[in-house]
Amino acid sequence: MKRFSILLTATIVACSLSAQTLNVKVGNVTYLFPASQAGVMTYSDGSSLTVMGKTFTLNKVSSMYVDETAVTDDAVSVVYSGSSASITIAGSVAQYLTITQSGAHVSIVQSSDLAQEITYTLSGSSSDGGFYMEGSYKATVELNGLNLTNSSAVYSGAAVHIQNGKRIKVKPLNGTTNTLTDAASGSQKGCLYVKGHIEFAQSGTLNVYGNTKHAIKAGEYVTIKNATINVLSAAGDGLNCEQYFLMASGTLNISGVSDDGIQCDIEDTDTGSTGETADHEDEDSGNMYLQGGTINVNVTATAAKGIKAEGNISISGGTIGVTTTGSGEWDSDDLETKSACGISSDANITISAGTITLKSTGSGGKGLKCDTLLTISGSAVIDVTTTGGLYYNNGTKEYTNYTGNTDNVDSDYYSSPKGIKAGTKVEAGKQNNKTTYNYYGGIVISGSTITVSTSGTNGEGIESKSTLVISGGEIAVNAYDDAINAASDLTISNGYVYARATNNDAIDANGNCYIQGGLVYAIGASGAEVAIDANSEDQKQLYVSGGTLVAIGGLEKGASLTQTCYSASWSQNTWYALTVGNNVFAFKTPSSGGTGMVVSGASTPTLKSGITASGTSIFGGVAYYPATVSGGSNVSLSSYSGGNTGGGNFPGGGNNPGGGGFWH
Hints:
With 664 residues, the protein is mainly beta. It has a domain at 1-71. Helix content is 3%, strand content 55%. The protein is built from three helices and 66 strands. The model is unreliable at 1-7, 270-281 and 644-664 (pLDDT under 50).
C-alpha cells in the first residue's frame, strides 16, 4: 500500500498542473477528471479515493495516470468492439452514474440527484451488445457510426433501451450511418425504445431492424428533424408512439413491417393505486403533425395502415408516399371486417399543403380515411389509387375481390375499396317505419389538386358518410362505383370537379345535391341511373343554380333547374368545346357512358364537336380550361327539363338523339 500511496501523491501533484487530466480506470470504464476541476481528492483508510464526489474502491482501480486528454463536461462515450465495449465518463457527471457491464452490454443508471443533461456518444460495432440507460433527467444520445446488435436479449433485448420518462434527443451524427438490430426474443417493446419522448435530430442515417415487436417505440411523443431514419423490418409497427408524432424535416423510410408503418396512440397513463387508466384526450395525444420532410411507407400485412393515428392528423407540407398491399381481415373482437389503408385517423384529417401519393392494392383497401371530418384546402397535391376489389368475410367464409351481390348482406361482413372516405353515419332509430340516421363529420374541400382512381369491384372514389362540400380546388375521380358519393347532402359551389364512374353514378347524393358554381364534368356509366343523382326516393332533390356543367348520362328526375340546362347527343372519344360567355371548356368524351349529354352555364352556351384544343390542361389531360380551340362543328342543343333513363338502352350514348325527357 505504501507504493500506491507514493503513486497517488505523485498523481495528485501532477494534477495540480494546468491542462492536465487524471484518468481513473476501473475495468473497461475510464473516468476523466480535469485538474482545473478536481479540487481536493480524499484518500481514506488506505482503501478508497474520492474525486469530484466520485468514490473509488482502490482494489478495483486497474490504473491511474495523468495526461493531457481533453475533457468535455457532461459527456459519456461508449465504444463497442466485438464482444466488449470501452466507456469514458467526464468527471463532471461521474458521481451520478452507476455502470454495469457484461461483455458488450452496457447499463448506465443515473442518480436522481443528477441535474444536468448528459450527452452519450455511441460508436463502434458489436454483434452481441446493447445500451441501457435509466434516469429521471433528459439526455442526448449521439450515434457516431454505430453498428449494434443485441442477439442475447440482455437488458430486455433492445439494442438501445432508455428507461427514462424525459426528452431523449437521438442524433445520428452528420455523415454517419448507424444500424440497430434487436434480439429475436425478449421483452423489448422496440429495437430502439425510449420510455419518454424521442427527438431525432442531425442529418446522419439510422437503420433499424425490429425482430420482436416495433422497430422504434416511444412511450411519449416522437419528432424528426433533418435525420434519415430507415426502418427495414419490424415484427410489429415500424414506428409506434403515444402523445403525438411530428415530422418537421428529414426522411423516414419504412418497409418490411408486419403491422402498421407509423402508429400514434392516445396515451393511457396509470392513475395510481386504483390501477385504472385515463385517456389524455384533452392533451396533445394521439395526434400527428406532418409539416415537412419525406415519408415513404410500404406495408404488406393484412388490414395494415401506412400511417395511423387515434387522434387527428394535420398535413401542412412535405412529401408522403404510402403503399399498402395487404388484404382485409375479420376482426373477431369487433365482429367486423377491417381493411388496409394508406393514411387513417380515428378523428379528423386536415390537409393544406404537401405532396401525398397513396396506393392500395389489397382487397378492400383504402387510400385516405378518417372517422369524422376531412378538410382539404390550400395547395396540396393528392394522388390516390386503389386496385383491389371488395373484401367479404363473415367470420367463417372469406372472399378476396368478391363479386357477389351484397344488397342483403350485413355491412360488417364486407369492406369496399375507397379512394377517400370520411365521416360517420349512425342509425338513430325509426320514423314512419323508415330508418333514420345521425351524421357526423364529412368532407370539406376548398383547395388543392386531388386525383383519385379506384379500379377494383365496388371501388368508390370519394365517399362521405355525412355531408360533402366542394368550394374550390381541382378534383379528378375515375371510379368503378360512384365517383363522388355523400350519405347526406352534397354541395359544389366552386372549383373544378371531374367525376367518372364506369359502373355507377358519377356524383351521387343520398340527400339533396346542390350544383351552385364551379366547373363540373360528370360521366355516369352506361346502364347506371344518371350522371348526377339525388335521393328523390326519399323526397330529396337535385338543384342546379350555377356553374358550368357537362353531365354525360343526364340528371336526377325532378331536378330543380333554376339555371337553364340543355341536352345534346355525344360521340365516343371525341373532343368537344363548351363556350359560356368568354370562357371555353374543352373536354374529351369517354369510350363509354350514359345516355345523352346535359350542359349548362351562366349564359346560353354553344357546343362544338371534333375540335382541336390547347390551353391549361386539367383533370389528368381529358380537358382544358381555359381552352383555345379550332375547327369542329356545331352541336344542336335542345331544352332539358328533367331526368332521363340513365342510358341502359343506349350504350356509349352516341345513338341517343337529344337525350332529354326520359325519366327513370
